[in-house]
Specification:
By secondary structure, the protein is of the alpha+beta class. The chain has helices spanning about 25-30, 45-60, 70-80, 125-130, 155-165, 210-220, 230-235, 270-285, and strands at about 5, 10-15, 30-40, 40-45, 85-95, 110-120, 130-140, 170-175, 180, 185-190, 195-200, 225, 240-245, 250-255, 260. Belongs to the class-IV pyridoxal-phosphate-dependent aminotransferase family.
């Protein structure tokens, strides 16, 4: 089955879909995006993603390209036309097409809306069972990381650095030596006494939708959580570490740079959270596109 993309009101063959050469997302990275997990052909945590999308647009003084209910209908149709049962939906909104100039175009210029969907994109069983490695890199991103902007060049460079080192992810580190987050994931550790630690929400990190789900699941399981910064040294000395994201779920980290975490194997609390999140996905897979 050929893949289908949605671009500004049209469903097009994926290979033929495109935007104008003067789209501001292309020329200025002037746009935002969301990645939504699909399970059983239905969305996971769609309400959270829609809320974050609307917030990102507000922060950039952009408007929604269509009413939320209509957007959900388009999302559902993109997933259906691509026959995605387990995978992701990608959604991007830019400030639209206008002659190249740094100030915003007139308010009459319509936003550009693009959606695609594809199957797969979940951790392999080996990654879950054996864990993954991360490397640490200086955080060189702009100061508004709470906005899910398409301006991702520092993330791309850091992710490639991780790949070159044989690692799955790069943990970005601020000037004071504290871990902010991964290039596309939130960062967590588990202390010796079993406390989960993750950086609090502010302009330094993105409010991960899976991060929020993990916090809820941990509280329901009676686990202690501290939202505070942690250093690279604390992470390397931790009992466990893991990452969370739409595509990674709650994936164990067993190596940071050249240091093994504890015995170098996924820990019991991370495994518990993985199982809890898998159960959450199974429940959320019944979520309705329109009424959620």
């Amino acid at each position: 089955m050929s893949r289908v993309a949605y671009v500004n009101g049209r469903y097009l063959p994926h290979a033929e879909a495109g935007v104008h050469v003067e789209d501001r997302g292309l020329q200025f990275a002037d746009g935002v995006y969301e990645v939504i997990a699909i399970e059983g052909g239905r969305p996971i945590d769609l309400g959270g993603h829609m809320t974050r999308l609307e917030r990102s647009l507000r922060e950039l003084r952009m408007t929604m390209p269509m009413p939320p209910r209509a957007m959900r209908l388009v999302m559902r149709e993109v997933v259906r036309r691509n026959a995605v049962r387990i995978g992701i939906l990608y959604l991007q909104v830019t400030r639209g097409t206008y002659r190249r100039d740094h100030p915003f175009p007139p308010a009459t210029v319509a936003p550009t809306l693009v959606m695609t969907a594809r199957s797969g994109v979940r951790p392999t069983s080996a990654m879950v069972e054996n864990g993954i490695g991360v490397v640490t890199v200086p955080d060189q991103r702009w100061a508004r990381r709470d906005i899910k902007s398409v301006s991702l060049l520092p993330n791309v460079m850091a992710k490639q650095q991780a790949k070159d080192a044989g690692a799955y992810e790069a943990w970005q580190v601020d000037r004071d030596g504290f871990v902010t987050e991964g290039t596309s994931t939130n960062a967590w550790i588990v202390t010796k006494d079993g406390t989960l630690v993750t950086r609090p929400l502010n302009h330094d990190i993105l409010a991960g939708i899976t991060r929020d789900s993990v916090l809820t699941l941990a509280a329901q399981a009676g686990l202690t959580v501290e939202q505070r910064p942690f250093t690279v040294e604390e992470a390397k000395a931790a009992r466990e570490a893991f990452i969370s994201s739409t595509t990674a779920a709650a994936l164990p980290v067993v190596r940071i740079d050249d240091a093994s975490i504890a015995n170098g194997a996924p820990g019991s609390i991370t495994r518990q959270l993985w199982d809890l999140y898998e159960a959450h996905i199974a429940r959320a897979g019944a979520e309705d596109w329109i009424g959620s």
